[in-house]
Amino acid sequence: MKKTVAAGLLLSILLLLFTSCDIGTTPDNKPRSETWYEYFATVCTVQSFGEDTDENFSAVSSRVKTMLSEYHALYDVYHEYSGINNLKTVNDKAGIEPVKVDARIIELLKYGIELYDRFAALDKEGDTDLAKGAVNIAMGSVLKLWHTARAGVRAEDGTVSYTLPEAEALMLAATHTDISSIVIDEQASTVFITDSETSIDVGAIAKGYTAERIAEALMADSSLSTDGYVLNLGGNIRLIGTKGGEDWRIGITNPDKTSGEPYVKTVEASNTSIVTSGDYERYFTVDGVKYHHIIDPDTLMPATYFHSVTVVTEDSALADALSTLLFTLHINKAYALVTSLEGVEAMWVGTNGTLTATPGFPAVED
Ligand code: AMP
Ligand code: MG
């Protein structure tokens, strides 16, 4: 978690650095920023770079904080919150009974299921196993084993040791990942996981989905001015409007920490989302081999095609889901998928450091 926090901070700092060169010092367009550390196990920041006032910024940031705290509680699969049924409640009641939930839980689950169906449909249309690495929100049983392994075991002297999940346990868990076990009754506002061994994990989509809902709410509120705002939920970046009429410049982290180059590319963009999935923040090491947090449903092991995948598209929820999905696909399939989608661009950093990007990827030329 510390590594993610550091990475999130880095991104925030980067935005400020790029901005500090050309933003004036009048009170109306000074950069403003507020950061929270308690949501989605990461660093969440809202920043304002356009013409703004302290009053407007304070109203926007208080709206962001309220929404972050509500969505965080609803989508949390590890903790209970008094007075609400969240995704942990739904998981705890798997195989037992339907749970009455907030509409925002139903919307997220429907989104996850729709995406799964959509990419599976592409597969059925003949693109062989294009969707083989599909992001599956019903993969909680498998992901839990990796999550526990990543936490390690702390000895009395403070050292932490790590062991890999047992192959047998992974295979058994994989027999309980059928997404149709998640049964939604919209009329009754309930969710029921019909198999007691199946559980929901929305780690691949929740931050982007939340970022998009927040951006949407801010833009729809005519009492707020939101041009020139950046929402950064642990590296899930949602750019609202422009930076004083110009594009923002966002550095894409270099997964190779030893190279001395902090960024592999700089993106210039506005009114869009930039989301990266990578193997360099959440991982543990066993016998010199790194095991990260994005699991290929086919092998039940961390996907090995890339160090990172960055997706640029307006809808932050889609960007988040796709970056994880693309991470689990062979480059040929991943590239074909992205180019079949309108308004989506992507860049891959291969495990040998090779960069591949779709033609419209908005990187600044070196
Ligand atoms: P992201 O950082 O957005 O790429 O999402 C990574 C998170 O998604 C992990 O920490 C898991 O919670 C979850 N995850 C990993 N692999 C998968 C998968 N194949 N399908 C669904 N969720 C996954
Ligand atoms: Mg994701």
3D structure, described in words:
The chain is of the alpha+beta class and 366 residues long. Helix content is 34%, strand content 23%. The protein is built from nine helices and 17 strands. The protein has helices spanning 2-20, 54-75, 87-92, 103-124, 140-151, 167-174, 206-220, 316-327, 331-339; strands spanning 32-39, 42-48, 99-100, 153-154, 160-161, 182-185, 190-193, 229-233, 236-240, 248-253, 263-269, 273-278, 283-286, 289-292, 306-313, 345-350, 355-357. The strands form five sheets. It has an eight-stranded antiparallel β-sheet, sandwiched between helices. A three-stranded antiparallel β-sheet has the order 3-7-6. A hairpin with a 5-residue loop joins β4 (153-154) and β5 (160-161). The chain is globular, with a radius of gyration of 20 Å. The structure holds adenosine monophosphate and magnesium ion (MG). Residues 204-205, 277, 320-321, 323-324 line the site of magnesium ion.
Q: SSE layout and pairings?
A:
Elements: H1 2-20, E1 32-39, E2 42-48, H2 54-75, H3 87-92, E3 99-100, H4 103-124, H5 140-151, E4 153-154, E5 160-161, H6 167-174, E6 182-185, E7 190-193, H7 206-220, E8 229-233, E9 236-240, E10 248-253, E11 263-269, E12 273-278, E13 283-286, E14 289-292, E15 306-313, H8 316-327, H9 331-339, E16 345-350, E17 355-357
Antiparallel strand pairs: 1-2, 2-8, 3-7, 4-5, 6-7, 8-9, 9-12, 10-11, 12-15, 13-14, 15-16, 16-17
Helix pairs in contact: 2-7, 7-8
The site of adenosine monophosphate has 17 residues, from helix 8.
